[in-house]
Amino acid sequence: MNYPSDLYYTKEHEWxxxxxxxxVIGITEFAQSELGDIVFIEIEDVGTEVAxxxxxxxxxxxxxxxxxxxPVSGRIAEINDALDASPEAVNEDAYGKGWMIKMEMSxxxxxEGLLSAEDYSxxxx
Length: 125
Prior knowledge:
Blueprint: E1 8-9, E2 14-19, E3 22-27, H1 29-35, E4 38-43, E5 49-50, E6 55-61, E7 65-69, E8 74-79, H2 82-85, H3 89-92, E9 101-105, H4 117-124
Antiparallel strand pairs: 1-2, 2-3, 3-9, 4-6, 5-8, 6-7, 8-9
């Protein structure tokens, strides 16, 4: 499994990349492998305010539906619309083409409570 060291991770298997005051968020390679083939992704609308640990969407796979939890608080600024037509991009490239949202962070210090790649790797074994 691949856990890029420039990302932060949550215990709920989301990853976050910081770009200034914007957080790019998706699910980890481990999460997508556990879910199996992803067939549909539903995300809250652009402009929606989401608190840390609040649900911002769902991922539907062949075997299950899983909620997506915000790693930090903020406002959804952009949604990866390419996932509407190609949700399998999350399976193919979880940290690249498979990103889900970009969020303007309201409290960047919340990042300090997230896991490093090493900590996440140890957690999932």
